[in-house]
Design brief:
The chain is α/β, with parallel strands linked by helices. About 30% of the residues lie in helices and about 20% in strands. It has helices spanning about 15-25, 45-55, 75-90, 105-115, 135-140, 150-155, 180-190, and strands at about 1-5, 30-35, 60-65, 90-95, 120-125, 140-150, 170-175, 195-200. Strands 1-2-3-4-5-6-7-8 form an eight-stranded parallel β-barrel, surrounded by five helices. Strand 1 (about 1-5), helix 1 and strand 2 (about 30-35) form a beta-alpha-beta unit.
Length: about 220
Amino acid sequence: MSLLIPLYVHPAEDPGAWHRLITAAARTYAVVLNPASGPGEAPDPAFTAAARALRAAGARLLGYVDIDYGARDRAEVVEDVRRHQEWYAAEGCFLDRATATAESLPDCRRLVREVRRLGAGTVVLNPGVHPVPGYVRLADLTVTFEGHWSTYVSAFTRPVWTARHPADRFCHLVYGVPEALVPLAVRTAHDRGAAVCGPVTGQPPNPWAELTPALTGAEG
């Protein structure tokens, strides 16, 4: 089991969740740090401390950066990556709301090259759907599903081309999973060719405010 952990709650609001995450850090693929829908305007001491503890526990840290489906200026995106590196020692980046179309692929390729030149060792793209195949070659990990458990169960389809790539290049982020079905969500992701997953019980508007039971041993 390899878990991607977006925990979008401030450490002061739920210190217990952050403590559980730190103690189970070795079981994660990576932890996404998101102080303020990005790095924010200044370092957050609570996130600095959490990042330090996570690194000490062996976690890989990814800075959350919203690229707004390619609408954000590339310089702003790169500056967010740099701030995550400088303030929280993030080893990579989680590029949220990534594009998925063939027309946008060249711009995304240039962006990924630029953040890698900046030192991002791990790049995760999150279009939340299956993009055209070229995106998977750009990133270390691509989130090809982000959505509710009911949609994941009833409407998920897997393009044939995904079978040409290793499962550890794909991630499924599923929210609204009944706690008793979290183990099934993990198995389903693996059966559907995603070696990395992140099933949570939370619901919109912020389903990622809670830690996945899969990390804390509730998966059975």
